[in-house]
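re: that chain from earlier
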Amino acid sequence: MIHIVFNEADTEVLQKAIDMDESITGKVIQIKDDYAVGPLLNIYTGDGMTARRAWWSTVLAGGDYNGKADDGSVDDTKTVAEIVGTMRRNPEEIVWIWAAQNKHDVSGYYWLLQYMKEFQSRVYILYLNNLPFINEKGSIFYPEWMHTIPPKEFLKAKKLARPITLSEFEIDPDEWTKLCNDNKGVRILEGGKKLVQYDYDFYDADLKKFITKDWQKANKIISQFLSKNKHTTGDAYLLWRLKTILGEDKYDVQGELKNMKDFEIKTKATVTETVSE
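^ sequence. v structure.
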């Protein structure tokens, strides 16, 4: 059994659940790229992959994750090739795809499906869509992210596993192809598995709301955005957008525009001249 997740934190909590239940013993593999942002045009071709990697290189340049796009640590194409190879060599092998109701997981699911077509009936989905779970305090909650579910609750979640239907293998890749061809920069989950797209500046207006007249380090602004905003995304993307916003000349900056803790920002003071008559 191969378990596929889309977040590093999910890997740890799922492994703990597997340790509690031998019936779901298997290798946990993470798809690492965030397909909810960035270019998708021709994503399954060499040119498309190169364009996406170049975009990530630009986004991460000079920041906390500088060079990560080029160091080989994120190579989903290689990862999925290894999964496909395993599935072809072992006709008994099955895949469980774990996804919670968030744009990151759903975008990853859509991207992955293209490679799973030949294994229809051997690929299962566990989509935790609007399902109640019990947290560590004993209260019912509806998780948006898998890693917020206590490991013991995963033993209940396993009952949700079902084969991806032939209809889904036909319809979902078509939906993903439309999104790829639109070639916009940000994907938001409206509900179910429905993704809608916006331009790269989608988060800018809300991000600006957390820049005040007082000096704040970039990491504090990003942290506030992540904790308070309705729609959020990764901190690396937000750092890139924040640096882009600063080009509008509406803000004062001190420090070096590199990592999140390296510079501070505030709104420019309005200078009012009083003319005495």
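Residues 4 and 29 are 5 Å apart (CA to CA).
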